[in-house]
Amino acid sequence: MDAPAEAALRLLVVDDNPQYAEALQKLLLGKGYEVTLTSSTEEARRIFARAAPDAAFVALGAEDGFGLELLEAFHASDPLAVLVATTVREGYAEALGALHAGAVDLLALPIVGDALSTCLERVRQHVTVRRELEKTRIATGYERQRRLQVERELAQSTTDYQTVFHASRDALTVYDIETARLVDANEAAVKLFHAPSRKALLEWLS
Questions:
Q1: Which residue has the higher pLDDT, 66 or 105?
Q2: b/e burial code for range 70-102 (CB count within 10 A of at least 16 → b)
Q3: Cα 142 to chain center, whole Å?
């Protein structure tokens, strides 16, 4: 028995053969999935870009384009896309080509035995991994943005401090507590010590 379709996964089926396409659509709908069916690779591209389905089943012989090219296009636009190649042919070369194009599984048509259930289990696993990776990516992106914000605020704070420090009419110096060395002095301090320059003052008092 199949596991329930998690949160009604949205699936895209691309196949120019009405018999196989409608049969697969019916099976997927019966298992609780949301299915969008198209026989056009151009329409499939638009649907994939607009609706971002959880997974796509792509026939390797769609009429107005090659299935491998469509798989490659989907994979190029979204490297985490969960793609399944469907085919009525058998052969190692075709399976290898589909996997190289970005498919995570190959489903032979017509469907025999538990082939679809096994394929859908792999699809659910890949979708789960994808969602976890997206959560991590979002969290990482937020952390990166927050770190950049803190760095900008720190840089601005440092700039503000330097502006106030060097513009002050009072003689100000900064010592490193650990080394007991003078590390900075403003112009008022340079004048107070009658030093020829800030650099010279730092050398004298270090």
A1: 105
A2: bbbbbbeebeebbbbbbbeeeeeebbebbeebb
A3: 13
pTM assigned to the model: 0.64
pLDDT band at 1 (very low <50, low <70, confident <90, very high): very low
Q: Helical H runs in 66-180?
A: 67-77, 92-101, 115-167
pLDDT tens digits, 8-67 = 799 999 998 999 999 999 999 999 999 999 999 899 999 999 999 999 999 987 554 568
How far apart, in whole angstroms, are the C-alpha atoms of residue 88 and residue 192?
Answer: 91
Q: Which of 2-11, 100-109, 120-129 has the lowest mean pLDDT?
A: 2-11
Instruction: Select from 102, 11, 81 the least CA-distant residue to 53.
Output: 11
For residues 66 and 83, the answer to whether their CB atoms sit within 8 Å is no
SS3 for 100? helix
> What DSSP string runs through 42-55?
HHHHHHHHHH--SE
The CA–CA distances, whole Å, from 85 to 67, 103, 104 equal: 8, 6, 8
What one-letter code names the amino acid at 121?
Answer: E
> How many other C-beta atoms lie within 10 A of the C-beta of residue 125?
12
User: Any idea which residue has 């998690």 for tokens?
Assistant: 6
Longest dimension (CA), the chain: 96
What Rg do the C-alpha atoms of the chain give, in angstroms?
Answer: 32
Cα gap 162→168, rounded to integer Å: 10
